[in-house]
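Quick one: structure tokens for this chain, please?
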Amino acid sequence: MSESPANQDTPRTVLLRGGTVHSPADPFATAMVVERGHVAWVGSEGAADAFADGADEVVDLQGALVTPAFTDAHVHTTATGLALTGLDLSTTRTLAEALDRVRAHAADHPGENILLGHGWDAARWPERRHPSRAELDEATGGRPLYLTRADVHSAVATTALLARVPGLADHPDEPLTGDAHHAVRRTAHSAVTPGQRADAQRAALRRAASLGIGSVHECAGPDISGEDDLTGLLALAAAEPGPRVFGYWAEPLTDAKGADRIRELGAIGAAGDLFADGSLGSHTACLHEPYADAPGRTGSAHLDPEAVAAHVAACTEAGIQAGFHAIGDAALSTVVEGVRAAAERLGPARIRAGRHRVEHAEMLTPETIAAFAELGLTASVQPAFDAAWGGEDGMYARRLGAERARTLNPYAALLRAGVPLAFGSDSPVTPLDPWGTVRAAAFHRTPEHRVSVRAAFTAHTRGGWRAVGRDDAGVLVPGAPADYAVWEAGELVVQAPDERVARWSTDPRSGTPGLPELAPGSALPECLRTVVGGRTVFARPNE
């Protein structure tokens, strides 16, 4: 784990004043003092005068908003950087446009051993089909190409790349999934040099910092990225200014020896994308009932309850977090059954104290929600998934039918049950976009799943810290780490998802701190500065 940039001078004492500070310590605060990398004081403009003489720097906020920095609780940093700096098909509107972009990228990168790309989604194209191998061979001039679908759970590849992977030269002309996909991914990523990898990681962390993100949870693992990728990222984040990086390594454990290896890698848990199943877009999320658009198919189960129980027990006994990737209702049932079995063995209090995690957790039922609350499981979720694929005519509805699709991502029910929420992007699956993520949760396509902007903001700030076992951060109160962002924002309001929220909470007399207006169509706040541990890691030019 990397908790703060190294090789820098001790942070100075800074007084910020003349703005709005989002803090439960004082809902009307306009000023804040930062000392030795922590928040020292939050209060009113008049009281700030007493701190001015002792400050090394006084910052006039000029009306800007100061909030805790965001935490993105699920990121693939190197893949994000490669998408930012390489071939990105996420905005293509047709198959033909995607092939044109592949062709142009190949022409612009004649010296690359293997071409890498990301983001195609046939469900968004009028052709409604994936690029064929022959089309990709033509577009690349016969060169090796690895091209992941938007959900990163399937991919297409050229003949030249498949020929490098034993046993896959004659693979059917269908997207690669499961073990075949993992084998091709390992071959493709092995061509990325350490220098290219570090450049991609820097690009991703710079983008995160520019968006007011002060920490990320890197979800690494043997089926996603190599050990060198994780250890290199943690070393880079420790040596250079930027967001904090908390690393997870998704490898199943059965004993204390495995836990020791997790710690040796610098990870804080055997969690993240430890796959219980796949994804809905690739028809690999594990379901109780078949897909509506693929009768007879129920997805892929990668773990059984016994394996889940063994992993959770080993992690709990070793004092590290366990976690799983689970999207389909059958996969979530498996995880709950396994965690409950571990609780029967070790006692529910020990399991709850472990703050184990479930990533994505989309097809929840009232029963599995209750189990999450009972077992103290954190739901690490991605509201942008609903914004991208929800709705009556979205990908979810096509895969599952409208009735089942409407049950997905029930954030309000999770909060009512007392389930801890941590928000993330799963970047590069959906982009790093914290305010957009808060908006997506507050204006969920299914109205009964909406939460207040305040609740969504908390899940994307303090919720991410709680998900790594820290209750002392992600909020601007004295003693908390000085991880904050400064924003150019419009009017601040207390925004509820609908009229069912008690009216007192939206009344200024309640003393509830305001947040930017995030209604669909409104401009999102623009980041002016991001500070981590009292050190500036991003400043907008001319700021």
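The CA atoms of residues 10 and 131 lie 53 Å apart.
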